[in-house]
Specification:
The complex is a heterotrimer.
Chain A: H1 2-17, H2 19-39, E1 47-52, H3 58-69, E2 73-79, H4 82-90, E3 96-100, E4 111-116, H5 120-135, E5 142-147, H6 154-185, H7 187-193, H8 198-226, H9 236-260, H10 264-282, H11 294-301, H12 304-318, H13 326-346
Parallel strand pairs in A: 1-2, 1-3
Antiparallel strand pairs in A: 3-4
Helix pairs in contact in A: 1-8, 2-6, 2-8, 3-5, 6-8, 6-9, 6-10, 6-12, 8-9, 9-12, 9-13, 12-13
Chain B: H1 2-16, H2 20-38, E1 46-52, H3 57-68, E2 72-77, H4 81-89, E3 95-99, H5 103-109, E4 115-120, H6 124-142, H7 144-150, E5 153-158, H8 165-196, H9 198-203, H10 209-239, H11 247-271, H12 275-291, H13 304-309, H14 314-326, H15 332-355
Parallel strand pairs in B: 1-2, 1-3
Antiparallel strand pairs in B: 3-4
Chain C: E1 4-13, E2 16-26, E3 31-35, H1 42-49, E4 57-62, E5 65-66, H2 71-77, E6 78-81, H3 93-103, H4 108-122, H5 135-147, E7 153-156, H6 165-180, E8 184-187, H7 192-195, E9 200-205, E10 208-213, H8 215-221, H9 223-226, E11 243-254, E12 257-268, E13 272-277, H10 283-290, E14 298-303, E15 306-307, H11 312-317, E16 319-322, H12 334-344, H13 349-362, H14 378-389, E17 396-400, H15 408-423, E18 427-431, H16 435-439, E19 443-448, E20 451-456, H17 458-465, H18 470-485
Parallel strand pairs in C: 3-8, 3-9, 6-7, 7-8, 13-18, 13-19, 16-17, 17-18
Antiparallel strand pairs in C: 1-2, 1-4, 4-5, 9-10, 11-12, 11-14, 14-15, 19-20
Helix pairs in contact in C: 3-5, 4-5, 4-6, 12-13, 14-15, 17-18
The chains are: A alpha/beta, B alpha/beta, C alpha/beta.
Amino acid sequence: MKQFISFVIKEGKHILRDKRTMLILFGMPLVLMLIFGFAITTDVKNVRTVVVTSSMDHLTQQAVDRLAASEYFTITQLVATPRDAERIIRSQKADMAIVFGPDFASKRSGVQLIVDGADPNMAQQWTNYATAVMLNADGGVVNTRMLYNPQMKSAYNFVPAIMGMLLMLVCAMMTSISIVREKEKGTMEVLLVSPVKPLMIIVAKAIPYLVLAFAILIIILLMARFVLGVPLVGSLFWIIAVSVIYILLALALGLLISNVAKTQLVALLLSAMVLLVPIVMLSGMLFPVESMPRVLQWISAVIPPRYYIEAMRKLMIMGVGIKEVAREVLILTGMLVLLMTLALAKFNKRLE
Amino acid sequence: MTLKYLIQKEFTQIRRNAFLPKLIVVFPIMIMCVMPWVMNMEVKNIKVTVVDNDRSTLSQQLVHSIEASNYFIFKGQQPTYRAAMQEIEKSRADVVMVIPQNYSRDVTLGNQPQVLIAANAVNGTKGAMGGAYLTQIVTAHVNPDVTALQSRVSTLFLYNKNLNFKLFMIPALFAIVMMLMTGFLPALNIVGEKEAGTIEQINVTPVSKWSFILAKLIPYWIIALFVITVCLLLAWAVYGITSVGPLALIYLLVLLLALFWSSFGLMISNYSDTMQQAIFVMWFFVVMMLLLSGLFTPTRSMPSWAYATTYVNPMSYFIEAVRTVFIRGGGISSIWHQLLALLGIGSVMATWAVLSYKKNS
Amino acid sequence: MNAIEVNNVSKSYGAVKALDGVSFSVGRGEVFGLIGPDGAGKTSMYRILCTLLLPDAGKITVDGYDTVRQMTDIRRRVGYMPGKFSLYEDLTVEENLQFFATLFGTTVEEGYDSIKAIYGQIERFKDRRAGALSGGMKQKLALSCALVHSPSVLFLDEPTTGVDPVSRKEFWEMLGDLKERNITIVASTPYLDEVRRCERVAFLEQGRIRGIGTPEEILTRFADIFNPPGIEHAQGGEVKDENVIEVEHLVKAFGSFRAVDDISFTVKRGEIFGFLGANGAGKTTAMHMLTGLNQPTSGTGRVVGYDIRTEHEQIKKHIGYMSQRFSLYEDLTVAENIRLFAGIYGMDDKEIARKTDELLARLRFADHKDTLVASLPLGWKQKLAFSVSIFHEPGVVFLDEPTGGVDPATRRQFWELIYGAAGRGITVFVTTHYMDEAEYCDRISIMVDGKIKAMGTPEELKRKYNQPDMDHVFTYLARQATRSSD
């Protein structure tokens, strides 16, 4: 037991002494939360608009004023021909042009929106907003209610995703690197020959990273609640319980990587290739899984963070009971058992 | 003159590495073949469930028009709002539409019936888009005049007529590939020599700082040119997408971006003691620059403090310029200020990379 | 019953046979030497003995337990210090020791007596991080960590490489104490004086046991390897009365610690100057200042006529350097390494090609022109590194422990190269822990605790301190200093 404790302390010192890595580990969640919470939005705002009209009649003026008054559009220029407008859009001085027909007032000809279609999502939204503003059509018949996220903040969607990414990276990447570093430096030989059981070496190595993962989890939850104003409506107990399963799963993955990798560099690259890229790309963190082609959806089905992020979105933001996420939790538990068994079975008690 | 020997050495080392040559070839191919399919933020397959409290011919018509729309996946009807909410909680539905009791009567009398649309907005974009489309269908159903009014507005989408998301993302992928290939590899380079001890041998030779660092930068520029060629060919072969603007400008932009990333990587490497540290620090900056670059979300929607960071973010300049050239067919006159900014930031970083390398302490 | 029985053990890595039918036995309480050149298979043997590797064939018992089946029992009983013993660089000296003590189920206090002789020397640095120690001091700490517990069998893979003579003596005295407690020791070493302190030795070469016997038997039987004829100081290299290195009152301080504390000396053109000192005495730091890697805190120095403070880039054009850490590019071939460094010193392609062929012919290396440096034996790497460092015919060449870890025959070949260089007028500035090599130098300085304690020709020093050889001179001076610093 004393050996075990001194092992854990030693491992803790390794982490605490590497100031730069520590700074990154704790700086990362802070910065990510701030960026996702405040900086990144897909709101329609400050769309630079050019008005194309040959004769500014009363009705045109009214439509233009309405556009200028809205927070969405900024009228930057008035030009005479659509060709001029196109040139301005091409040189990135404007995003959209509104072409009023010469006799717009007489209601015979219409309005044409010339939109920079490079970004399809935004192009469509700009069109929708511009049409709505100009026609001043408040549907009136529809009463829309945005459930769980009435202000439609992107933070609600991203907080669980950040948790999924950071916990995986801290646990899997850091654990695997720290084991491989001992192999590379040669200290692993001494540790293995010592009377300490090999399994205990691994458990002792994992504990400080577990603590670190918890610290990061708490930081994220606190920031989400008090800085970003994301309500944690679900049961805190289950949020933490599911996170524990996930953290253990990440540790098992880290252990597996450390079995395969011989040098720190390989461990780093493997973690980046096997963990980081799929997590960011295929877990549904940034890009919705259901829009992907079938084959990629299958691949995404074996990526653990996908289920964790989904479960967290439901538990934390929607506040559903544990019953509603039973499927995700079961899959995660199944993966955990599988990976842990594999990792322990493959763990090398000798050098080869 | 010594530059030649130093560059030769860097190339030999890259070639001898068991991993790097494969990485340099396979990685861009993988990214170009997989990512355009993944990086698709189109909102599709929204699942709708309906609670029809009216059960009239008109309300059934409305339900049918939703069923018929190929934008939605119709998930059937639920007897009560509460039952429908459970569908949302179980993720079997994204949007619920509740048709009020007197819908049919209100519509015929010309009153405004109040249809309730409740969307799961955890993913804000999805909720908003689903809500908006559903609103359109309902409005058209209740009030056919609005449809007529809408038809007076026509829309012309420039450059990307079919609103193809791949076209939007592919030039941005160039930025990601460049960042990973010419940023991370140099970050591991000098710190690797430190760990191997060979840097000490170099430090006692008369080689100048500039030629030593330059010799480490140039191979990555050549790699950048190779990689971008692979990317452009794949974009053409796999997706049939080619640059509208001049290719020379794309290459110029890529070189300038490579100048920045390779210098930045070496600078980080100079300050790091271990590879792990170098990677972590690199990763931190990469994530920040990428998220704030306008690759995923428009920079102009950001609050002003975040928008201010794009003035020093080379990724933001590159992505804006490369999209202008590649998608919009812009020429040098459209992107000259981005070119200047990239050149400026790149040169500052290269100087920093040289100055941070200490031959003598 | 014997403590260790090794029966017909073989081990291959792919096509390479590391061990081929090795058999020997070690009695309880015996000090057994396992010697042989680099790459002979010693490390594989140790790893198999420690249950870290499985043998392909053969049977081994350690303390009566089978290495294949009874792994746990063996690991509870043995101690092992790998050749590449590495400490936790981010932990302090004391924390390292404490960790290893706890790991082996003991405490520093309990084990203190058995490591006092060596740990005492580094104890004053106990709050310093292990990464900040000099090479030799790290080795001493590693020794302390390996010996802090008392196992029943102890395996030591070249434990004293890079350790100064005095500490090596103390280390072997400690092993003597352990033997008295009936602990079995298997050790390997490139030092002859250490080989002589074993009771029996096995000579391993290319994976096979070539002979087992008393040290004297083995050393005589393989005299061509262990006891090559001494070299005559080749004449022709005339020492001119012209100072190539002049140093006055040089100081380098790290905070309050003065690593180099006011040294002054001169070296003349064509001289072979031996720069000796115990581990941590400040040799490497001094050398770093002379080669322009480090700025002095105070004092002046000139190397090949240039000021070390302001003209270090000029100096670098006219010197060669071979560092303690082997420093050619392992992933380049022999010819590519030569080409790179020659290119850096401004030679053109034609000249490089001609001189490369000349050099490789001289070293009888032509067949290995396109071999990766990583796959060469250590002795060859050292010879190659030296040849590269003087390829551009510098005025002075600095060699920092150039011959660590190789057998006497290989070291002798290395010194032939040094004499060759000196013969061509290259001044040689060399540090070493081999006292037989010290005798080969024209002039010697001995550094203790950052100061130069003695300087002169080997003959003068022996006479002055009234000692039979350099080993005794060194021990005499170093011991004296340790006492005075306490």
